[in-house]
């Protein structure tokens, strides 16, 4: 027997946590695509881990950005 999952679409105004998640993802996207770090800087203290999936040349540990290895524009792989 398979576990069945139900997914319910939500609108951000009804679920404030979705707005926060959307903002965090958008801020990371802006850093990678437009090389703008200011939106991440606003929430930097709330980010515990970013994984650079696009960096195929870095060693595995260098793809992870956390509090010890901070996320900076000069470290990320260009898209």
Molecular structure report:
This protein has helices at 16-34, 38-43; strands spanning 50-51, 64-65. It has 79 residues and is mainly alpha-helical. The chain has a domain at 16-65. It has a two-stranded antiparallel ribbon. The radius of gyration is 16 Å and the shape is globular. The N and C termini lie far apart (42 Å).
Give the topology.
Blueprint: H1 16-34, H2 38-43, E1 50-51, E2 64-65
Antiparallel strand pairs: 1-2
Number of E strands: 2
Biggest β-sheet description = 2 strands, antiparallel
Residues in helix, %: 25-40%
The outline comes out as: globular
Poorly predicted spans:
none
Sheet with the most strands: spatial strand order: 1-2
Ends distance: 42 Å
Report the average pLDDT across residues. 86
* SS summary, helix count: 2
Along the chain, the helix and strand elements come as HHEE
Structural class: mainly alpha
What is the beta-strand fraction?
A: 5-15%
Give Rg in angstroms.
16 Å
What attributes does this structure have?
single chain; 79 residues; mainly alpha
Task: Please give a quick description of this structure.
The chain is mainly α and 79 residues long. Helices cover 32% and strands 5% of the residues.
């Amino acid at each position: 027997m398979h576990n069945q999952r139900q997914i319910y679409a939500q609108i951000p105004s009804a679920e404030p946590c979705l707005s926060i998640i959307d903002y965090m993802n958008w801020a990371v996207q802006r850093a990678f695509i437009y090389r703008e770090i200011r939106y991440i800087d606003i929430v930097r203290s709330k980010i515990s881990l970013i994984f650079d999936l696009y960096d195929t040349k870095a060693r595995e540990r260098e793809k992870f950005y956390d509090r010890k290895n901070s996320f900076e524009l000069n470290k990320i792989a260009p898209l």
